[in-house]
Each structure stands twice: as C-alpha cells, then as structure tokens.
Amino acid sequence: MRIPFKTETDAFRVAVALGLLTGIAVVVGVLSSRAYGVVVFAAGIAAGITFELAGRESRQGSPLRDAVHGPHPHGGGARERHVLIIAGTTLSGEALAAELTGSDATNLRLDVLAPIHASRLHHMATDVDLERAEAQTRLERSLSWAEAHGFSAHGSVGDSDPLVALEDELRDFGADEVVIVTHTGEPTSWLAGRMLDHLSRELDVPIRQVVAA
Fold first, then answer.
1. CB within 8 Å of 165: residues ≥ 6 apart
2. Nearest-CA neighbor of 122 among 14, 9, 17, 7?
3. Is there a contact between 188 and 32 (Cβ–Cβ < 8 Å)?
4. Helix boundaries (H) for the chain
C-alpha cells in the first residue's frame, strides 16, 4: 500500500485534492441538494482510497531497497566502497573529509546528489529553474571540494522530487552507505518531516546525517 504522506509534497497534493473535492461537493450541494453533495464527496474519497490501494507502490518490497540491490549501469568495482552523499549544503571543510574517510578510506568513491530545494508551491507548478541552478552550483562546488581532497567523485542534481532523485541515483550507481550532509543554518525542506527516519526504514545500508560547519 502506498503511504500518501511520505513527503511534504505528497501531503500537499492530498490537501489540494481534498480542497478541490470539497469545493465540487459544495457546488453540487448548492445546485441540487445537500444529499447529492455528500454523495459526491463520499464517492471522491472512495475513489482516492482505491487509487492509493492500487497505486504504483502497492507491490511488495521497497523501491529504494530494490534500487540498492539491483544492477547498476555505472556502479563501482567490487573492491570500491561507494558512498552516496546527499548534499543538502555545499561540501566543505577538513572535518567533513575526515568524517568520510575515518572508517574506511580505501578505494572510496563518492556519488554526490545535490537535491533541489524547491518550495511545495514551486514544485507543484514545476517552476524550479532558480532552485535547480542553485543546486547545480552547489554540486559543482562540492565536486571541486572532493577533488581537492583527493576523493574519486561524480554527481548530479537529479529530479525535483527528492525520492525520485534518490531512487534514480541508487539505480544508476548503487551505494554501500548513504550520508546526508546539512548545516545548522540551512533550510531543511528536502529532509522535512521524518525523511531521515523514512530512509532508515526503506534502505538496509548504513545511513547517517552529518552536520557540516
């Protein structure tokens, strides 16, 4: 069963759908009778529940977990340790470099995903050009930092939907570990709600959050 509130975007979509359904039911009730309005509202709710039950995530298993363990067209070699970094902020500093190499610096390969920090309104309107440009700049600076510290790294900006971007990256490259990098003064819309908890439930590889200075 698809859980409709995995992200803020999902919650926003459900709220919009409920608002539209309520408006339609009110109009029907005014034009005909209150009973017809109630019937329209109930039918809309039933249709929404049916859609969720029959949705694309109704199959068993986790799409993210499947992505980790499936074939990876651009995955590393068997001896490489592949770390997916979700760069909520620009990667920087010696402390972060030490954090990434502290446990296992041998054959370490970084895959940097720079998520798009778009508001829910912009995301729904697909108006994310400025946010995508910011994410691209963040990615380029992060890759420059990785190169300066001797890391083998590549990266992408990805889809404006965080879960889609993450799933695409995992399907392409895989991951032995996921590291979420944020800093204390940055808006955390991409990780809003319980995103870290959600990833911990969905993935069976180590996941940790690093707060950069």
1. 113, 115, 116, 157, 158, 159
2. 9
3. no
4. 8-31, 34-53, 63-69, 94-101, 120-124, 129-148, 162-173, 195-202
User: Does the structural domain 63-212 have CATH classification 3.40.50.620?
Assistant: yes
Ranges of each domain in the chain: 8-53, 63-212
- Which residues contact residue 204 at a Cβ distance below 8 angstroms, ignoring those fewer than 6 apart? 65, 68
Q: Which tens digits make up the pLDDT trace of 7-36?
A: 455 666 677 778 888 888 888 888 888 887
Which pair of structure tokens corresponds to residue 6?
Answer: 């995995």
What tokens were used for 37? 């309005």
- Res. 174: pLDDT tops 70: yes
> How does strand 177-183 pair with strand 207-212?
parallel
* CA geometry: angle 205, 159, 212, nearest 5 deg: 55
